Amino acid sequence: MRTTSARITASACGQRILILSAGVGSGHNSAAAAVQQACTARADIAEVQVLDVLQVSSVLYRALLAKGYFVLVEDLPWLVEWGYDISNPPYRRRGPIDPWTRVNAAPVVSAIKRFQPTAIICTHFLPAQLLASLLLRGVIDAKTAVVTTDYDFQGLSLSGAFHKIFVAREEGKVELMALGLPPDRVAATGIPISKQLTPAPVRDADKPPMLLISAGATGGDYAVSVVRQTMHMRSAFTATVVCGHNDALRQRIETLVAPVGDRYSVLGFTTEMPQLLQRADLFVGKPGGLSASECMAAGLPMVLVNPIPGQEVRNGDYLMEQGAAVRCNAAATIGWKIDEVLRKPGRLQMMQAAAQRTGRPDAAADVLSALLDGPSRPLVVTRAAQRTILAASEQRFVATDLTGPSSLVRLVDQTSGSTVALLQEEELADLQKRYATSDGDLVLRPGLASLLLHWEERRLLRAMLQGDDELPVRVEGP
Predict the structure, then answer these.
(1) What is the pLDDT of residues 227-254, one digit of tens each?
(2) What is the phi/psi pair of residue 443, to 5°?
(3) Domain 210-360 falls under CATH 3.40.50.2000
């Protein structure tokens, strides 16, 4: 079989890694930076580039997706939760990319063509659908992956063609496998965070516990009530308050804590957040995916306040399940809640140990290894298979419980052992008529993909073959 140009380039000149993010909040770009940092530790990577897809889109598109999201979070949080839930079922949206998104994606496509990557990693779901379209049209033959940046899996991250999908925890992988996704295409690596190059300082047990109170990168006003409540605490403590880019918030808090001397240190935006995480004993703030992942890697338990409905509430549920966090549902009890953690003998230490167990500090490196050392051919999920996965999700079925023509079958590359297609059983019959050999094997060939074939089958063959002359596959499933 013929080897494709991308695979020759990767082996001869080193890997060219393109990381696509979207600046909806800071977490997705932070995950992209973490993967970029991990690239520098690998000798087989020649060049890496990070692109925020919103920065090259139109001003209107960027404003609606980025700024509009935070307006909803502040003013209509119930709508954010509704949107999260309604978009959560996998493959609810199928079909071609809408014209407006396609126009705004044109600069991203141009950037991909200029850079000629051998692998593309998405830290946001927005570019994932675009990459699937490019794979199915034969525009790219780079390895592609989607990295989720929250602890709960969100169905928007699934596309019709990809090489790997990376989820934050094992339960997410189990969920996708239950819906029918093959285990060789899903990995539970954790959320990528930047690697700390200096050893963590040893926490001094003789000093009062240090609280790290975070208002987030944009500086949420909820931090004022958090600080005010800690001023009523009976436990001994010190606190560092990080106000992000909100200078007005920093000034308000400085004025608030001025009467109590040097117990509080108030900062604006800081690049020293990793060091603060290492020195702190308890984090107080929102459970964003990246913030939570960084805390867990530092062995830093969390007191959760003001979570965004949807993903942050679910992040918090997971952390509390692990014993690494407590949540405050009422602003008036924040000080009491923190006091409860600090005053009960051994409780803070137990939560710190739970955080340490939950942390995945090597997630970024694990993502790179699993993608670059993994299958060279993408997994293609046909539109019919997507309908089956959606139905299984909505009806709370496990995919293996499905029977009949809509049940799922897999095509597995006989050479590599990787799954290359997921399709409905009734779709398999047509492939067997066309590509079965005399001894019953299935060998896919481009020469048989005439223009008379169904459009879906042509896309399927093009993506799986990747320019090779033939592909022997075996069928797995009902």
Answers:
(1) 999 999 989 999 999 998 899 999 999 9
(2) -125, 110
(3) yes
* Whole-structure pTM value: 0.90
- For residues 436 and 400, what is the distance between their CA atoms, to the nearest angstrom? 25
pLDDT per residue over 59-100, tens digit each? 777 767 666 666 677 777 778 788 878 888 888 876 667 676
The position carrying tokens 């320019």 is: 467
Q: From the CA atom positions of the chain, what is the Rg in Å?
A: 24
Question: How far is C-alpha 360 from the chain's CA centre?
Answer: 14
Q: In 97-164, which residue ranges form alpha helices assigned H by DSSP?
A: 99-115, 126-136
List Cα–Cα distances, 426 to 395, 399, 403, in angstroms.
Answer: 21, 16, 11
- Helix axis angle for 222-230 and 334-343, nearest 10°, is 50
Q: How far apart are CA 196 and CA 382, in angstroms?
A: 42
d(CA 114, CA 106): 12
Residue 269 CB partners (closer than 8 Å, separation 6+): 217, 242, 243, 244, 245
Write the CB contacts of 94 (distance below 8 Å, at least 6 apart in sequence): 160, 383, 386, 387
Dihedral of CA atoms 72, 74, 77, 79 in degrees, nearest 10, equals -20
The ranges assigned to domains in the chain are 5-194+365-472, 210-360
Q: Cα separation of 19 and 28, whole Å?
A: 11
